[in-house]
Amino acid sequence: MSNVRDLLRLARTTEIVDIGANPIDGDPPYKPMLAAGLCRVTGFEPQPEALAALLAAKGPHERYLPHAVGDGGTHELKICRASGLTSLYEPDPAAFALFDVLKPLSEVIERVEIATRRLDDIDEIEHLDFLKIDIQGGELDVFRSGRRKLAEAVAIQTEVSFMTLYQGQPAIGEIDVELRAQGFVPHCFAGVKLWPIAPCVIGGDPRRPLNQLLEADLVYVRDFAHPEGLSDDQLKHLATIAHHCYASIDLALRLILLLEQRGAVPPGTRKAYVALAAGKPAG
């Protein structure tokens, strides 16, 4: 077996939703799965230039839609000089003033009225196993307006803020309370952004940080300490995501152990996975 999906004999392809799919921060965590044909991606990106870039580069297992996902209301989109800072929230001048490099990039150069769609109301999403989301402060609205679809999900990678850069932006604590209430627990950091506080510059590099936490990509997974609420298929999809997206072989192994105990996979699957994770033939 070359991948966990084959080992676990999943009944369907893992469905991934990427909200705010603008590819400004490098490769998404699901790239290995996408490259191997192990998933299908439905992405959302309301910024025309970013959407055009996604459509031009997409493969056979990707589709991208122009919707802004949120609370279902109409809001003003603040388009910033740096597209990655564009948000439904107003940039906070006092917060951006703390970071010299970011301050000019946060200038709002255009304001556009935009209708948002609730995640639960998007019919194009039939299944949702893994949500990746980065929409500059709007994540909590998506979680609250997507509880029905997220009930199927087993993993969420979300941007969380330690220093809020926008007026009224929810901080990490509010995100954590909501996702725990929906049955998720933190698993790992996919990335942590530190930033230098102005006017300090280290070694002539205005981007070289010291200790100040700005934001992070935090991965939440279904609470595997209480697996009685997870179906066999959910355990299988989470094991696949844990292995291929985050190299979390300990989590994947624990989930496969649970599946063996349930009789949902053949005896010996755990041993076969250990061999797969080690890159050795099973036997």
TrEMBL record:
The keyword Transmembrane does not apply. It comes from the Bacteria. The keyword Glycoprotein does not apply. GO terms for biological process: methylation. Residues 18-185 form the Methyltransferase FkbM domain. One of its GO terms (molecular function) is O-methyltransferase activity. Signal peptide: none annotated. Keywords: Methyltransferase, Transferase. Pfam families: Methyltransf_21. This is FkbM family methyltransferase. The lineage of its organism: Bacteria, Pseudomonadati, Pseudomonadota, Alphaproteobacteria, Hyphomicrobiales.
